[in-house]
Each structure stands twice: as C-alpha cells, then as structure tokens.
Design goal:
Length: 200
C-alpha cells in the first residue's frame, strides 16, 4: 500500500499558502492511490525542539542523559516516518531567503550518520532511496528568474539536503510573487495547482 508522508512547515496557519498547496498535492496523490495512508507532521503548529548542547548527542553522538535519549527517540521516530514513505510532500515556504527554522530542525534530526547517510572513501552516500518527493515552495517575491535569483537559498539548499540522504527524485512546485498583491497571489496559486495536477 502506498504511504505518503506530509511535512508542513509554515508558521502562518490558516493564512498559509504552502499549507493549501500541500493539501492539494495530497488530494491529487490520493486520487491516484485511493488506498494510500497519509502521515502528517506540522512543524509550524507543533515544532520539534532545536538541537542544543544538552540534546545534540541524541542525533550526532552516543545518548546517555534523559534529554539526549529523548532526542534520539524523536530522531528515530522522524526517520522511521521517512523510511516508511513511498512519497513525501514537503511544504517549504521561503523565510528570510531560506527555509523555516522548524523545517531546518527537522533536517537536523533526520540527517543522521550511519542511518540516513554514510561516509566512505568514495565520499558521502545517501541511504534513503526509491522515494518520490514533491516540495511546495511559497515565496513573497520572484526568485526563479530576474535579479533576486542569486538570493534563492531555499531551493538549492533543499535539493542539497534531500540529495544528501538519497532523495534525488524531487519535484519543486513554486508559488512565487505571493507578496505582489491579490492578483499575483491568485495567479501564483493557479499556476502551482496546475503544476501539482501535472505532477501528482
Ligand atoms: C518570517 C517570514 C520571512 C519571510 N521571508 C521572505 C523572504 O526572504 N523572501 C520572500 O520572497 N518572501 C518572504 N516571506 C514571504 C513568504 O515567503 C510568503 O508569505 C509565503 O507565502 C510564505 O509561505 P506560507 O504562506 O506557506 O507560510 C517571508 C514571510 C515570513 C512570515
């Protein structure tokens, strides 16, 4: 049975553009796979703790303390959700030219040496394979072309993070110019929904 993991990371709740588009993508995926199971993680509404001195050994070391063991358990849980998924839909708004800190924290927990990537003499190798990823990018401005293109630290960063753990089958759906007024916003949503329909 198809399994879909859905990651939301907007902090804007009901006003979020990416949340709407993520749900549209999930609806399309369910149309194609009616029996699929869906697991949701909302990192904006229910954030996971950032890595700090007290808990980092849970992800990048040998956990001993209770706080470290709690971080290890969360890392195990988030990675298990990812490993179990056939398709992953990620809502990734652009905040300050990059991704929301909640999504960054999620990556801090799922990029784990020996579990989702390994190092060898040949260099790093991603250990999660055979999954399809759809990333919904909402942005106030225009970054796919024009003068702000060099300020896009969102899409190349996401491509690198996902590729590092073996997730290379990634489709990026962009909703750009959300901050350019109601008409531009509507046009961006329509374009993104069309791209979702063609992808999912
Ligand atoms: C904290 C914050 C930072 C933002 N930074 C940027 C930015 O650097 N560039 C940009 O084009 N839009 C920026 N925006 C606008 C968002 O990208 C835009 O509102 C988008 O729709 C956010 O997605 P969401 O509605 O799913 O949260 C920012 C919005 C917020 C709330």
């Amino acid at each position: 049975m198809e399994r879909i993991l859905v990651i939301h990371s907007s902090v804007l709740g009901d006003a979020s553009v990416s949340n709407v588009l993520v749900e549209d993508a999930v609806r399309r995926l369910l149309e194609a796979n009616p029996g699929a199971t869906v697991v949701h993680r909302d990192l904006g509404a229910a954030p996971i703790p950032h890595l700090i001195t007290a808990n980092v050994a849970g992800v990048r070391g040998e956990p001993i303390t209770e706080v470290e063991l709690t971080a290890r358990a969360l890392s195990d849980e988030l990675i298990a959700e990812l490993q179990a998924a056939d398709s992953v839909v990620i809502g990734a708004p652009m905040y300050n030219f990059s991704i929301p800190t909640g999504l960054r924290a999620w990556f801090d927990y799922v990029l784990r040496p020996g579990v989702t990537f390994s190092y060898s003499e040949a260099g790093p190798r991603g250990l999660l394979t055979g999954k399809r990823v759809i990333v919904i990018e909402s942005r106030g401005g225009l970054y796919s072309e024009g003068p702000a293109k060099a300020m896009d630290f969102q899409e190349p960063y996401l491509r690198t993070l996902l590729g590092f753990i073996g997730l290379t089958d990634v489709t990026f759906i962009r909703a750009e110019k959300i901050g350019f007024g109601p008409d531009a916003r509507e046009a961006a949503l329509a374009t993104a929904k069309q791209a979702i329909a063609e992808t999912a």
